[in-house]
User: Fold these one by one.
Assistant:
Number 1:
Amino acid sequence: MDINVKDVKEILKEEGYKLTTQRKAILDAILENHEKHLNPEEIYNIVKLKCPDIGIATVYRTLQLFEKLNIVCRVNFDDGYNRYELIYDTEQHQHHHLICLNCGKVIEVKMDLLETLENEIEREYGFSIVDHNVKFFGYCSDCEK
Amino acid sequence: MDINVKDVKEILKEEGYKLTTQRKAILDAILENHEKHLNPEEIYNIVKLKCPDIGIATVYRTLQLFEKLNIVCRVNFDDGYNRYELIYDTEQHQHHHLICLNCGKVIEVKMDLLETLENEIEREYGFSIVDHNVKFFGYCSDCEK
DNA sequence: TTTCACCTGCTTATAGTTCTCAATACTAGC
DNA sequence: GCTAGTATTGAGAACTATAAGCAGGTGAAA
Ligand SMILES: [Mn+2]
Ligand SMILES: [Mn+2]
Ligand SMILES: [Zn+2]
Ligand SMILES: [Zn+2]
């Protein structure tokens, strides 16, 4: 289910890119924090521990590359950063996110349950849907009390 | 149904703000382009026609104020701009957007159809939903051909 | 080992947005 | 209407996330 380093090496190679030390370190940082939706700066700080000479430009460049190759995808929580997460083979659409308005926690929702709505949209608007982006704002169970 | 200048004047007054010439001009620009999801620069250019001395800082400040007072809301189409649209009294949740990956057109969807999903989420995660943000990416009827 | 395209870190540039501040415009109380 | 006090403004500088330019480094293929 999870994408791993070997898979990424394959994907890069196929497109003529190399899995350099820096790229592997960035990938590791994302793999080891797969639920955290890191931004470039957070990734930079994690990677610097093992790879102290890395420049932040490399982090940005690598994330763009990974995004182009569908290894990661960008998510936007409207906090002024681009954030990134792995794309899993098992999901054909991006999963949904619940964002707590009180504590800022982000919860992932694997249920899709959009078929009815998507069918309605395709029928009503003649719009053929490729992907979606769904966020719910509210209060998590901890903050609701 | 539509919010109007008088309503806004009321809302501002209640909170101790004034409906200045500049604020009215910005509101007008948004009202007259209610389907367009303008960004601050576009608003600035429209407003400058009737209000040539306005500074762009005033546009940014006013949009922030309108957002705080729930007169407009910010929408993000991942094109590097904040965009703004009026909030209508009739909708309790933000409407959905269809974004064409080919021509960039943005279509509004007034059907909500998220009750099943939202109920599932409230039940399964104990997360109490206040609002949502739903975007569909794909190809519009013109581009599909 | 030589070649050559890829890749890197450093630095500078870009662009959307916010901040600072002095000047101006309103408003309420006289 | 005048005055005092507050809200608002425009201009420009500052900020911040990200991208671009460049010269040197790296590593696989010949
Ligand atoms: Mn996620
Ligand atoms: Mn809209
Ligand atoms: Zn919470
Ligand atoms: Zn289209």
Number 2:
Amino acid sequence: MNYWLMKSEPCTFGLSHLQQAPHQTSFWDGVRNYQARNFMRDNMKLGDLAFFYHSNCQTPGIVAIIEIDKTAYPDATAWDPNSKYYDPKSTLENPRWVGVDVRLKQAFSNPISLAALRQQPALDTMLILRRGNRLSITPVTPLEWETVLTLQTEVL
DNA sequence: GCCAACGTTGGC
DNA sequence: GCCAACGTTGGC
């Protein structure tokens, strides 16, 4: 099993959207970066766990744990001319972009802020904390995963 | 709103 | 294949 961190702007798709989705499950669409796509397409397995990270908002940070509910399949928003994710180079025969289904596993009652993550020396290696990193999907090591969990004081 | 850092594009 | 220009990201 693998661990991941998946980043989203809460005004576009945040924890509240996922909580209100049927079965608290949603297609993770709109990824338009090849490296992030390759992680989803090639490495994400059913049952993998990911941190749900809110970016570009008042308090950036990890707000929940989500689980990969369905492995990668074509992202239909790339075919929709009315979508802001439209990409004319993605065809039905040769889809360029993919997404996965994610299911909410645990919403943190106390989200772990970016500032709190930065205070942890053990998390220096986390890609999300690396200077200039912009990848919306990044792998997380088991050690990093456990370290983040220890910061989550609220148990259930 | 600012700006550093990065990815993508396209001319050559 | 190089690289300048441009667009985007995202913390602050």
